Amino acid sequence: MRCGICGSGRLSPVGELTSSDSMQKRLRLRFPRLGAFKSRPTFHAGFARACRDCGALLPFLGEEERRRLDAEADGLAPAEGAPIDADSEGGDAR
């Protein structure tokens, strides 16, 4: 595994990722609602590695959340105002 920012292979071991917010103890990846009366698809990122060279934090989902994301991925929409990434599916390669 390499750092997504600087490309270094010098990453920390996996650590638990938490938030200081007492109401929400995990960081969340949220997507727009799929309908007027549906809840927002939300996935909790409970783990991370840190790059030992640039300090970037690389959060990721636990196995249960990853499986749930995989099952729902085709129906998810990008967040409003999200940047267009030419490297991702459906991106504009201009």
Describe this structure in words.
Residues 69-94 are annotated as: Disordered. This protein has 94 residues and is α+β, with helices and mostly antiparallel strands. It has a domain at 15-74. It is built from one helix and five strands. It has a three-stranded antiparallel beta sheet, with no helix packed on it. Strands 2-3 form a two-stranded antiparallel ribbon. A hairpin with a 6-residue loop joins strand 4 and strand 5. The longest helix has 10 residues, at 63-72. The protein is globular, with a radius of gyration of 15 Å. Residues 90-94 have low confidence and may be disordered.
Biggest beta sheet summary = 3 strands, antiparallel
H/E series: EEEEEH
- What is the CA-CA span between the terminal residues? 29 Å
Strand order of the largest sheet: 1-4-5
**Count the helices. How many?**
1
Helix share bin:
10-25%
**Rg result:** 15 Å
Percent strand: 15-25%
Q: Helix- and strand-based class?
A: alpha+beta
Low-confidence parts: 90-94
Mean pLDDT, to the nearest integer, reads 86
Number of strands: 5
The shape is: globular
